[in-house]
Amino acid sequence: MKDFLAAQVEIAERMFKMMAEDHSERIEAMKMWLDVNASLVRKLEERDKLIEQLRAELQTYKTADKI
Questions:
Q1: What gap in Å lies between CA 25 and CA 35, rounded to an integer?
Q2: Which DSSP symbol is given to 1?
Q3: What Å distances lie between residue 32 and 20, 35, 39, 63, CA to CA?
């Protein structure tokens, strides 16, 4: 009986270790995706700002042509 309990404890410890490693891998992957998404959002914001500037510049040229 003592060997059975020792084996069960060993199995439980191995399973816990595997679950902890899996959790760490999942968290690391989630952090990577969060970083990628944050970077993409920043780039989109920069793009939108540039588009706004270019539209304002274009409007200036259009207004100058009408004068």
A1: 15
A2: -
A3: 18, 5, 11, 47
35: left (phi over 0), alpha (psi -120 to 50) or beta: alpha
Q: 10-25 as b/e, with b when 16 or more CB fall inside 10 Å?
A: eeeeeeeeeeeeeeee
pTM for the full predicted model = 0.64
The residue behind tokens 């989109």 is 44
List per-block mean pLDDT (blocks of 10 residues) for the chain, which spans 67 residues.
Answer: 92 98 98 98 98 96 80
Closest listed residue to residue 36, CA positions, set 44, 25, 46: 44
